[in-house]
Amino acid sequence: MTTNNRSRKRARPRLAALVMLGALSALSACSDDSRLDLSDTAAGDAGKEKIYPGGVRGLNYSPNYIHSFSVTGPRGMNGGGGNMIRAGADGPGEAGERCCIGIPQPWQPNTRLEIEWELDRSPYDNDLPNGLEVMRATVIVPEYARKTSGFWAIYLPGDRVKVMVAEGNANGKNDLNVRPADDDPFVVQGVRDDAQTKELRERYR
Question: Which CATH fold would you assign to the domain 50-204?
Fold first, then answer.
């Protein structure tokens, strides 16, 4: 056997080892990249906002009959309800649940919604149209937790309103068993929409 043949035979194992080492390095690099990609994706998914469907209901502490109400806002927070009798000696009037509204998770501060409601100030008067009015307000949704039980609109005397997602925050401001306090920062004064009121009264004449 010549010297050149022996050198080529000795070189083959070295070449195979180098090829194998390069392949392992490449696999290792790909594996590291995959772990980083998966980790980044998981972190991204964890931070993404999710929208869950929820029912819409209402409580009426006011002396007016509420025909209907609707809310519109960002991130799927659009819905409505209504048909609430006025408050009585046994408590507030209550609207049955309607489907559906989006409830984003997690909660974000300063989420503003537009709420509009049709009321009747004289529900037992035969001259029905004269008691009808349309009210509007911009409300902020109070903080709520991961566990929720639907969206509520709460009407108070003086054409005031508060909205909230029930079951919600550390300061106890989302308790449906407690009438919102007059100094509750999330209670908002409604304003009459004259154009909509005129249109509503014409509809019932």
Answer: Immunoglobulin-like (2.60.40)
